[in-house]
Write a structure and sequence with these properties.
Structural class: mainly alpha
Largest sheet: none
Distance between the termini: 87 Å
Number of helices: 2
Helix content: over 70%
Shape: rod-shaped
Order of helices and strands: HH
Number of strands: 0
Strand content: under 5%
Amino acid sequence: MKAKVLQFLRDNRGITAIEYGLIAGALALGIMVAVRNVATQLKSTFENIKTELSKASSA
């Protein structure tokens, strides 16, 4: 029984999967932040276009 527990504790195969999971999570978070920033910039751009079109149509 002791040998099986020691063998389990020395097994490093699962660590690689955890590392890949952490990397994938960090990439997903980075992508979400980037997409949110782009969406905010697009919203601002379209609001500016809307404002300018309103000014042009009322003049």
